[in-house]
Design brief:
This protein has about 425 residues and is of the alpha/beta class. The protein has 13 helices and 18 strands.
Length: about 425
């Protein structure tokens, strides 16, 4: 690689990926997740973490092999993030233990006190069976609940991860709905391009499978209720899809200025070539019916990468398995890729690991990089009844292919649309 090739066509530092870490319901680490994905195995199962009687949806892609105490979203999210970061930093071989030479950008779920803790507070503050402010003040004065103060504050996960790995500067926590993980990567890319740092630790993590989340998404009619065969419930782009399945996990990427990475002898696993985003104020949960924001986000990512639609070999779809999202994503992709869309393989990892929410964009970026490295496109399982309204080349079984560039889409509630272009070589 020449000195000139360390910069892109716009003269910005190239952003290389030197470390990848993964935790999904399929397993811990790149190897376990990748083997299961390409084998078409599902990590979705009946929920065992809490009682599900009375819930419309009783399945999820929970990570049950990394327990925490208490089993609440912040603690689970921290555990998943730390596990993924350890793998990514070890692979990158960067810095010293506890002394990462760059900033932390981490996507975390919205944080609020969960039902068991609310109930305990209410019981402690009850007076004659009624919860009063004075009672809550007396309960707080006992100091029994002090640990919950830090646990349920937005930013705590980032602070603890920053302390553990010794990242530099103020850690950045963000939550842009289902595009959060991709946004964390985008922030790291932009910081390196601006020359503010030569390395960044970018993480997306989510451990928010709990009764309240299931009920809230059910009230939006967003979740699949096909509980009888859990592994068959998530079926992106299929005619008989009925909603997404919640999932958990994390992914961590070590990003570096390519020149700095090469100078220290790091193995470059791929590049983040382009990032595109477009806000959509149309509705809290629905996409704009003309697909304009999705189309704009895809085009912005391609333009930022300096490639046209013909330069993309496969698409890692947002592909949630909800009736509207899959239709709108297909519409957006067809508008950008035109007649070529029928020949561009597209696949959704969510068919196997569920929708990991704030972690999804990072997990799918990691899987996109593994797709490039291994030359194998993971399948979209359960694609048995194609939707005639979505004429895409959906990869129903793992497919060997020469993959140099992947478009990874992330479209979140509230119109948070973020797309990434990952590549094996500079554009």
């Amino acid at each position: 690689m020449t000195a000139h090739s360390h910069r892109d066509a716009r003269g910005r530092p190239l952003v290389a990926v030197t470390g990848i870490g993964l935790v999904t319901s399929l397993g811990q680490g790149q190897a376990e997740t990748w083997a299961a994905l390409t084998a078409g195995r599902s990590g979705i199962h009946a929920i065992a973490r809490f009682p599900t009687e009375g819930l419309r949806t009783t399945i999820a892609g929970t990570v049950d092999f990394l327990d925490t105490d208490p089993l609440v979203a912040p603690a689970l999210s921290e555990r998943f993030a730390a596990t993924a970061a350890e793998e990514a930093i070890a692979q990158a071989g960067i810095g010293q233990p506890g002394d990462f030479p760059g900033a932390l950008f981490i996507a975390v779920p919205p944080v609020e006190m969960e039902w068991p803790q609310r109930r305990a507070l209410a019981e402690a503050g009850a007076e004659n069976e009624a919860v009063t402010y004075a009672g809550l003040q007396r309960a707080a004065a006992t100091r029994r609940f002090d640990a919950w103060h830090d646990l349920f504050i937005f930013g705590t996960v980032a602070d603890r991860i920053a302390d553990r790995f010794g990242t530099k500067g103020s850690p950045i926590s963000l939550s842009t709905a289902c595009s959060s993980g991709a946004t964390a990567i985008q922030l790291g890319v932009e910081a390196i391009r601006r020359g503010e740092m030569t390395a960044a630790l970018c993480i997306g993590t989510d451990g928010s499978v709990n009764p309240e989340s299931l009920i809230r998404f059910s009230l939006l009619s967003a979740l699949s209720t096909q509980n009888a065969v859990p592994e068959a419930a998530s079926k992106p782009f299929s005619k008989n899809r009925d909603g997404f399945v919640m999932g958990e996990g994390a992914a961590a990427l070590v990003l570096e200025d390519a020149e700095a990475a090469q100078a220290r002898g790091a193995k470059i696993l791929g590049y983040v070539l382009g990032c595109g985003e477009k806000g959509d104020g149309f509705h809290r949960t629905r996409s704009s019916p003309d697909g304009a924001p999705i189309i704009a986000a895809i085009r912005a990512a391609l333009d930022d990468a300096g490639v046209g639609p013909e330069g993309i070999d496969t698409i890692n779809a947002h592909g949630t398995s909800t009736p509207e999202n899959d239709k709108m994503e297909a519409l957006g992709c067809m508008a950008v890729f035109g007649e070529r869309m029928g020949a561009v393989p597209i696949s959704s990892n969510k068919s196997m690991i569920g929708h990991t929410l704030t972690a999804a964009g990072a997990i799918e970026a990691a899987i996109s990089l593994l797709t490039i490295r291994h030359g194998r496109i993971p399948p979209t399982i359960n694609y048995a009844v194609p939707d005639p309204a979505i004429p895409l080349d959906v990869v129903a079984e793992a497919r060997d292919a020469r993959v140099e560039r992947v478009l990874s889409n992330s479209f979140g509630f509230g119109g948070q649309n973020t797309c990434l272009v990952l590549g094996s070589e500079p554009a």
